[in-house]
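Thread title: Can someone regenerate the structure for this chain?

I was given the following input by a collaborator and told the matching structure tokens would be attached. They weren't. Posting the sequence so someone can regenerate them.
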Amino acid sequence: MIEVRKLAALDMAGLGTRLVLAEYALGIVLAAALGTLSLGWGIAHDAELYQWPVLGGIWLLTIAANYVPLFLYAVALARAGTVQEEAQAARPHIRRYVLQQAMLLVPLFVLALSVAQEQGRRKVRPPK
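Best answer:
Regenerated them for you:
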């Protein structure tokens, strides 16, 4: 399984920090806005929970949630100045990372994966 932090680092190393930060921020804002509009429209028109505007709105909101950890990792990597070092460790597996970027479309998958990976990192680190 890919590491979400390294996915952000690879994107930043390849495309540039500013572009990736903008991409992730827009991924959050646009998906959340469109999801909210779609969900609101569906509810306002008495759509049942299983109808397309409601389901589409919920799905878009989960996509926005998937971009949150990517954005937070990108900000942390940019501030620490460790983009190249983190990306270098993942370069041998770049093909796998590129293919698995589609996991952003799976509702809440990236969010859940990043939470699990962070919990694993905290267990490995000795307490200060």
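The chain has a mean pLDDT of 90.
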